[in-house]
Protein backbone atom coordinates (compact mmCIF):
# COMPACT_ATOMS: atom_id res chain seq x y z
CA UNK A 1 0.00 0.00 0.00
CA UNK A 2 1.24 3.47 -0.83
CA UNK A 3 2.72 5.19 2.23
CA UNK A 4 0.67 8.36 1.67
CA UNK A 5 -2.56 6.37 1.65
CA UNK A 6 -1.47 4.43 4.72
CA UNK A 7 -0.64 7.70 6.49
CA UNK A 8 -3.95 9.25 5.48
CA UNK A 9 -5.84 6.25 6.83
CA UNK A 10 -3.90 6.41 10.09
CA UNK A 11 -4.67 10.10 10.37
CA UNK A 12 -8.26 10.22 9.16
CA UNK A 13 -9.56 7.52 11.50
CA UNK A 14 -8.72 9.32 14.78
CA UNK A 15 -9.54 12.70 13.22
CA UNK A 16 -12.96 11.45 12.16
CA UNK A 17 -13.56 9.96 15.59
CA UNK A 18 -12.66 13.24 17.28
CA UNK A 19 -14.80 15.25 14.84
CA UNK A 20 -17.79 13.06 15.70
CA UNK A 21 -17.15 13.59 19.41
CA UNK A 22 -16.75 17.32 18.80
CA UNK A 23 -20.03 17.57 16.91
CA UNK A 24 -21.91 15.44 19.42
CA UNK A 25 -20.49 17.41 22.33
CA UNK A 26 -21.49 20.68 20.73
CA UNK A 27 -24.95 19.34 19.88
CA UNK A 28 -25.79 17.92 23.29
CA UNK A 29 -23.72 20.04 25.68
CA UNK A 30 -23.60 23.27 23.71
CA UNK A 31 -20.03 23.98 24.80
CA UNK A 32 -18.06 25.19 21.81
CA UNK A 33 -14.83 25.52 23.83
CA UNK A 34 -14.73 21.82 24.65
CA UNK A 35 -15.97 20.98 21.17
CA UNK A 36 -13.07 22.97 19.69
CA UNK A 37 -10.67 21.13 21.99
CA UNK A 38 -11.79 17.80 20.52
CA UNK A 39 -11.35 19.24 17.03
CA UNK A 40 -7.77 20.34 17.71
CA UNK A 41 -6.92 17.01 19.39
CA UNK A 42 -8.25 15.31 16.27
CA UNK A 43 -6.17 17.56 14.05
CA UNK A 44 -3.03 16.74 16.02
CA UNK A 45 -3.88 13.02 15.85
CA UNK A 46 -4.31 13.38 12.08
CA UNK A 47 -0.82 14.86 11.74
CA UNK A 48 0.66 12.17 13.98
CA UNK A 49 -0.97 9.42 11.95
CA UNK A 50 0.12 10.96 8.68
CA UNK A 51 3.72 11.36 9.83
CA UNK A 52 3.97 7.88 11.36
CA UNK A 53 4.72 6.33 7.96
CA UNK A 54 8.13 8.01 8.00
CA UNK A 55 9.33 5.12 10.14
CA UNK A 56 8.34 2.62 7.44
CA UNK A 57 10.77 3.99 4.87
CA UNK A 58 13.35 1.24 5.29
CA UNK A 59 16.02 2.80 3.08
CA UNK A 60 16.30 5.76 5.46
CA UNK A 61 18.52 5.57 8.50
CA UNK A 62 16.79 5.86 11.86
CA UNK A 63 18.34 9.28 12.49
CA UNK A 64 16.93 10.61 9.20
CA UNK A 65 13.50 9.20 10.08
CA UNK A 66 13.61 10.94 13.45
CA UNK A 67 14.68 14.27 11.93
CA UNK A 68 12.01 14.18 9.19
CA UNK A 69 9.35 13.24 11.75
CA UNK A 70 10.44 16.10 14.02
CA UNK A 71 10.34 18.61 11.16
CA UNK A 72 6.87 17.42 10.12
CA UNK A 73 5.67 17.78 13.72
CA UNK A 74 7.28 21.21 13.95
CA UNK A 75 5.49 22.36 10.79
CA UNK A 76 2.11 20.84 11.65
CA UNK A 77 1.55 20.14 15.36
CA UNK A 78 3.40 23.16 16.74
CA UNK A 79 1.36 25.72 14.74
CA UNK A 80 -1.79 23.79 15.65
CA UNK A 81 -0.90 24.17 19.32
CA UNK A 82 -0.34 27.89 18.83
CA UNK A 83 -3.65 28.38 17.00
CA UNK A 84 -5.68 26.12 19.26
CA UNK A 85 -5.89 28.50 22.17
CA UNK A 86 -4.63 25.84 24.59
CA UNK A 87 -1.87 28.21 25.67
CA UNK A 88 -2.06 31.95 26.26
CA UNK A 89 -0.10 33.83 23.61
CA UNK A 90 0.20 37.38 24.83
CA UNK A 91 3.81 37.81 23.78
CA UNK A 92 6.59 36.27 21.74
CA UNK A 93 7.94 34.82 24.97
CA UNK A 94 4.72 32.81 25.38
CA UNK A 95 5.22 31.29 21.92
CA UNK A 96 8.82 30.43 22.81
CA UNK A 97 7.61 28.77 26.03
CA UNK A 98 5.16 26.68 23.99
CA UNK A 99 8.02 25.77 21.66
CA UNK A 100 10.15 24.55 24.56
CA UNK A 101 7.21 22.62 26.02
CA UNK A 102 6.55 21.08 22.59
CA UNK A 103 10.17 19.92 22.42
CA UNK A 104 10.27 18.70 26.02
CA UNK A 105 7.14 16.60 25.59
CA UNK A 106 8.44 15.34 22.23
CA UNK A 107 11.74 14.18 23.74
CA UNK A 108 9.99 12.47 26.65
CA UNK A 109 7.55 10.67 24.35
CA UNK A 110 10.36 9.65 22.02
CA UNK A 111 12.52 8.26 24.84
CA UNK A 112 9.65 6.35 26.43
CA UNK A 113 8.57 4.89 23.08
CA UNK A 114 12.15 4.00 22.15
CA UNK A 115 12.71 2.32 25.51
CA UNK A 116 9.49 0.30 25.30
CA UNK A 117 10.23 -0.93 21.78
CA UNK A 118 13.85 -1.66 22.66
CA UNK A 119 12.81 -3.75 25.68
CA UNK A 120 10.11 -5.55 23.68
CA UNK A 121 12.58 -6.31 20.91
CA UNK A 122 15.14 -7.59 23.42
CA UNK A 123 12.53 -9.88 25.04
CA UNK A 124 11.44 -11.12 21.62
CA UNK A 125 15.03 -11.88 20.58
CA UNK A 126 15.67 -13.65 23.87
CA UNK A 127 12.54 -15.79 23.37
CA UNK A 128 13.73 -16.73 19.86
CA UNK A 129 17.01 -18.16 21.20
Provide a short characterization of the protein structure.
InterPro entries: DUF3021. By secondary structure, the chain is mostly helical.
Instruction: Give the end-to-end Cα distance, rounded to a whole number of Å.
Output: 33 Å
Q: Describe the biggest sheet?
A: none
Number of strand segments: 0
How much beta, percentage-wise?
under 5%
* Overall number of structural domains: 2
Radius of gyration: 18 Å
Transmembrane segments: 7-26, 38-55, 67-89, 95-117
Protein name: DUF3021 family protein
Organism: Rossellomorea aquimaris
InterPro entries: DUF3021
3D structure, described in words:
The chain has two domains: 1-86; 90-129. Helices cover 83% and strands 0% of the residues. The model has no long low-confidence stretch (mean pLDDT 91). Helix 1 packs antiparallel against helix 2 (32-51) and helix 2 packs antiparallel against helix 3. The chain is globular, with a radius of gyration of 18 Å. The chain has 129 residues and is mostly helical.
